[in-house]
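Two records follow; treat each independently.
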Amino acid sequence: MSVVEHPFDLVLFDLDGTLIDSVPQLALAVNQMLRECGFDEVPEAVVRTWVGNGADTLVQRALAHAGAGEALFATARPAFGRYYQACLLEGLEMYEGVAATLARLATAGYRLAVVTNKPTAFVQPILEALGIAGYFSLWLGGNCLPEKKPHPAPLLHACHELQLSPARTLMVGDSENDVLAAKAAGMRVVGLTYGYNYGRPIADSQPDWVFEHFSGLDTILPG
């Protein structure tokens, strides 16, 4: 029986906009926060354009949209955290093909990890609730290190922890942050078109591959 050679040893995944569509829950929490602060709600489609740089930036963008002063952040940020924790798993879903592809990659012997700008406290409950935590050797949230994506440090830290080479690592994400971080880390990168990239085509960031569906990974990750 022939052995299929793997082009990569490690595959890193972004979370929001790559594995899961978390905008409904984030929008609910943002709007509850805005109401508590005395502002009008915003459409979910608007919140979708704010996602991708972590919770602090999401709250800052919401407050700026509302015309609030920076001083309100100290009150608004904890409020957002409370509301998001309360609705974190309500109606949460993976994108089509994610569960099956992760299962195949894990069975084939690829090491898998999550590198996200999402606060760490939210990552494990999401992965466990969706039944996919066991596929990953580690997950890094946005507050695990001083730097977040697009800085390469989180990606390189994952490689260091798993003792695997960046040159043999593939990053899979949906935003320019993922592409910039991967390139700076010396990794190849897949850009997914269905996620959150501030309304801009992910192809503009020039990832190595662009896929419309998560299962497109099957074409470059055999086994």
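The next record belongs to a different protein.
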Amino acid sequence: MKHCNTTAAYIELLRMKGEWAEFLPECGRCASHEMGNTWFQKGSKLVDVVLIVPETQGMRGFAKRLPEFVFRLQDVLRQYSFKFGLISFGGKGAVHSEPHVVTVNGQHLGDVEDVSNAIEHLKFADRADNETDGFEAISMATRYPFRTGSTKIVLLLTADERIARPGTMSVRRLTKQLKRQDIIFNVIGKYKKLNQRVIGQDYRGKVFYRKNTPIDTQR
């Protein structure tokens, strides 16, 4: 089995350092290209979105609106090929309390039409929140089986500001893990620091304001 020079060199370097690594199946060939060839590679239009939804009491209403949200997302960006995954935590019972994958039509990734059925399998707790937190769920999302070559997006929905529990992965380490996997991470939630004019902020620090709201340029 032939592999490109870059992959072969990287694997050999790992093995020299005592770390055994295997070649990925998708690295066995590059279509009709031979080793040593140079060519232009078009960007992929594959987009995988993993939704992290707490099964806490305050999220019940938000979760019901998720199918409409992802449908509109796909409709607006119809030039891309979307797949959706679902991770949840904080729900009722031992299984739903800890971070876990909720399959979408029996798969890790499914179509937009399957999101509604996956949401129906969530078991929301009777209390606002419990001891579990989203940091473990985010860490699980970094190990998700995304499609090869896809743009990877993880979207956390929360009604509370998340705080790392003692003994869990630190924010710095979790951030490095997201960067290492080339994952775009965004949060939709209520934050005290955001006033009524501000409705959100993306991972690049760009702030989103309500429509027709004058922006104070002095800030």
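Discussion point: Residues 85 and 109 are 5 Å apart (CA to CA). How would you locate this feature using only the token line?
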